[in-house]
Amino acid sequence: MSYSSEVKKELANIELNDCCSKAFLYGIIRYKSNIILTSNGLGIEIVTMHNAVARKIIALFKKIYNVNLEIIVVKREKLDKKNKYVITLFDNCKDILIDLKLIDANFSQIDYINKDLLKNDCCKRTLLRSIFMIQGSCNNPMTNNYHLEIVLNNEYDIAYIQEILNEIGVFPKYIEREKGFVLYLKKSEQIGDFLNYIGAVNSMLQFEDNRIKKDYNNYVNRIINCDIANEQKAIISAQTQLNNIKFLTDNIGLVNLSDRLTDAIILRTSYPDYSLNELSSVSEETIGRFISKSGLSHCFKDIEIKCLEIKKNRNIK
Fold first, then answer.
1. H/E element holding 211?
2. Which of 1, 61, 170, 305 has the fewest other C-beta atoms within 10 Å?
3. CATH assignment of 3-199, given 3.10.28.10, 3.40.1050.10, 2.60.40.2970, 3.40.50.150?
4. Quick one: which of 10, 51, 53 has its CA closest to 201?
5. What is the rounded CA–CA span in Å between residue 300 and residue 264?
6. What does DSSP assign to residue 108?
7. For residue 313, what are the CA distances in angstroms to 17, 38, 188, 241?
8. DSSP per-residue codes, 36-70
């Protein structure tokens, strides 16, 4: 089962009171239904890919409006082969749509949101829950990208939904695509806040747990990569220093060098694979005095400068 399916299954098990039940059905019909005319009269058709969502819709219609619905399960042979659930309602459709203020008495569609139905915070929360259940998806937090989206079929409601989410510190963006207007979140913290707000607490905790594990693994990998890069850099630097020491030995010898440069050379030739930190840590026991990492760096820089001067004076490339 996908992560989105798990979230929707959890949401479907949340019990609703009457005001929230109407807000839920309002969201389902407004954002996912088709209003159809048949020989049986006006009908409402709702399609979902999730069994738990289909059962929730049917149960609420029966609870609030005491109507009978038909459900057809369509088995898909292509794509992911998931079942498609087609729910059809013919009983009292006009009265239901008018009650929810989705149409007026003249059968004209009402574009503005029925805010009278959404006065309570719990109803606003339920509206977003229903929209996500029927039109939303969320990537598994263990994937490379964090992404939650809700597809809206009109632009009227975007500002209202953004307003609700802005109140809890969630700031979705939206883009128009072929399938509709897509409201989306990319930041993991805001996705977690959204899931918590609509009531998917267990899914939110799973999301946060997986996100922390993923971020920790990424952090460890970055540390390992940095360590490897630093080790490679130290090896290259040490080899350069050894090459410079050999050049001085072959061309002028080491007799006339200062004591500090001589000490640095002794340390490097004694421990050719050590980093400057490691050379510093063994300096006192090796040469009888402590030389800091910074001091060693200056010594090897001075040795490099001497090499360059000799090459320039002797026209050596």
1. helix 201-251
2. 1
3. 3.10.28.10
4. 10
5. 7
6. P
7. 92, 100, 61, 20
8. EEETTEEEEEEEES-HHHHHHHHHHHHHHH---EE
| Stretch 59-86: mean pLDDT | 84
In three-state secondary structure terms, 127 is: helix
| The predicted structure's pLDDT at residue 183 | 93
Residue 256's SS3 state is: coil
Tokens 């059962």 belong to 55
In this structure, how many other beta carbons lie within 10 angstroms of the beta carbon of residue 133?
26
Joined tokens for residue 237: 């630097």
Helix ranges restricted to H, 13-155: 18-32, 51-65, 93-99, 121-135
Domain ranges of the chain: 3-199, 217-313
Query: Quick one: tokens of 157?
Result: 């409601």
The pTM for the full model equals 0.68
- Percent of the chain as helix, strand, coil, to the nearest 5: 55, 15, 30
Question: Tens digits of per-residue pLDDT, 28-56?
Answer: 999 988 888 877 678 899 999 889 999 99
List the structure tokens of 241: 């220093």
Length of the chain: 317
Two tokens at 6?
A: 């798990």
Does an H or E element contain 77, and which? Answer: none
